[in-house]
Structures are given as structure tokens and as C-alpha cells.
Amino acid sequence: MTTRTLAPRPQTTAPAHPDDLMRHMFLGRLISQHTMIFEPLVYAEHLRVLAKLVDDYVLTPTGAGQLATYTPANVATVCVAAATGVPDGGWPEFAASLRTHEVAVGIRRHQLVVGSSGPADLRYVREAVEILVDGDLGALVELGTGGLFPAASLPRPPGLGAGLLLAPDRAFTSEASALERLLYEMIAAPARIWAAVEPSVYECLRRSLGDVGVDDVFVAGCVAQLLTSADERGQDLAARLPALAALVETVRSPLTSAARTVALGLKEASLFAELLCCWWPGTERSVHLFTSRLDYLTRHPAGRTPQERQP
């Protein structure tokens, strides 16, 4: 009997970066903080707006009860009603102008409320959702996106509602395609909710970033993950998303280094700044997962050393 010694298999691809290996941890952290801290604030605002619509005789208490359940579609519907100023008795006409569609997100289904003057063809919506799901970021659709409305006919409302609407005809660059604009808005939606809770931090970062938008940082980080995931599957996603791929390179460039220094200085007291640090492309992102002073686990007794547990 002869034996053979197997030679090491030649490595055909570069080893994955630690940040890429922990992609699920980044998303899990975002989901945890968003659902435990920010969704309750969004829901409280949703109930407040519903109560005002009842007080203004736009909705009956029964109608408000049907919209009280927290879903992105319900929040978007109420937010749009408040932003457009539905008159007394105008709810039936307003409701008729909306159409509800279901889009597959992972194993769940997500409702999108579409304005009557919005896009009749939802092909781009489904394509954008598929890109997020394939890149393990489908949860972003569940967290922030509620409705599709053309920006020309509906201004983005202030406050917590700012993250709950898509504006598919609002281009962030003149070269961006319809698919890229939709994908940008879907990704940016949760970050806009965070920014609305910490407006002073948002304004500080906006000033330090200059021509680069604050939303651009988070979107670029997510797009960088989508591109990496597509490369691993042998797909050239950058060719389909040239404007978003270019945005990633812009945020990675030295143009944003001063703003990142500002974000690092704010992250110990600001969840929004920490969010940006954890998704800033081209940086050592994983360090923020293990050095956070805002992670509730670091303050839990089970996460402390015996000396720290002493009263």
C-alpha cells in the first residue's frame, strides 16, 4: 500500500479581510440598536400623528386603529397623510390614491405603499431589493423603507418620518440610474431615522464632510459590502451600479479623512456617529464593534469582570 502526501491547495483568491468576515456582525449590531432604540421612537411618533389625524377629523378612531400596528407601510401611509395635509373628509380619496404591493425580502414579505403618480413598473424596486438580499442586507428594507413617492410631488417630511419614504426621482448625481437612485434611498432610510434623533451630530458631520453627504458614508459602506459579496459570487455588480461604485471610492478617498476624525471624536456619545464609523468604507471598521461604549452588553453585569461587578 502506498501513501500520498497531498500538496497544499493553491490559493486562488486573496484572504478575506476581517471586516468582510464579520459582515453579519455589523448588520446584527445595526438591527439590534435600531429595533431597540430607534423603532420605539418612530412608533411613538407614529401614534402621535395618528392621534392628530383623528383630532383633525381626517381619520375616524376605527380607521386609526387599523393603521396603529407598527409596519413600515402603515408608518409611511400616516406620514404621507400628515405631510400632504389631507383635509377633513378627504381620507377615502387619499387612500384610493395609494396602492400596496408586496415585495419579497428574504423569507418574509414587505409591503410598499406606492403613490398613484409614482412608478407604475416596480421592476426596479424588486431588482433593488434582490441586490440587497443577495448581499445579506435585505434587513435594511424592513428597517426603514415604507413607501415610494416621487420627490417632485411630495417633499421629504422632517423628523423621524424622513427615513420612511423613498424619493425615486431624486438623483444624488446626474449619472445615477433609476435603479441606483432607488437602491440609494432604500439603504439611506434607516440612517436618516438615526440622524433625525441626533440632529446636532448630523449637522456637525455635514459641515465636516463638505460636498460629500452624510448619507453617502453609510450608503457607500453598504454598497462596498454588496460589491464584495457580488465579487465572491463571480458577478460584476459594479458594472450595473457605476455611480454607486464611484461613490464608494469617493468616501474611501482622503476627501473624508477630516470628517472621519470628527466622527471618531463623537462616537463615544453618539450612536449615529458610531454607525457611520462601523460602515465607513476603506477603514478598519471592526474595531468599533469591540470598543463601543454604547453597546448595551458592555454595561450588562454579565459582560463585566468580577471586580467591575462589585457595588
Structure in words:
The chain has 311 residues and is an alpha/beta fold. It contains 17 helices and four strands. A four-stranded mixed sheet has the order 1-2-3-4. The radius of gyration is 22 Å and the shape is globular.
Number of helices: 17
Q: Largest sheet, described in full?
A: 4 strands, mixed
N→C terminal distance: 68 Å
Percentage of residues in DSSP E strands: 5-15%
User: Could you tell me the mean pLDDT?
Assistant: 80
What low-confidence regions span 5 or more consecutive residues with pLDDT below 50?
4-15, 297-311
Furnish the topology, listing elements before pairings.
Blueprint (H helix, E strand, L loop, with lengths): L17 H4 L1 H33 L5 H6 L5 H13 L6 H6 L1 E8 L2 E8 L7 H12 L4 H6 L2 E2 L16 E2 L11 H20 L1 H11 L4 H19 L4 H4 L1 H11 L4 H10 L4 H8 L8 H4 L5 H4 L6 H4 L2
Parallel strand pairs: 2-3, 3-4
Antiparallel strand pairs: 1-2
Helix pairs in contact: 2-4, 6-8, 8-10, 9-13, 10-12, 13-14
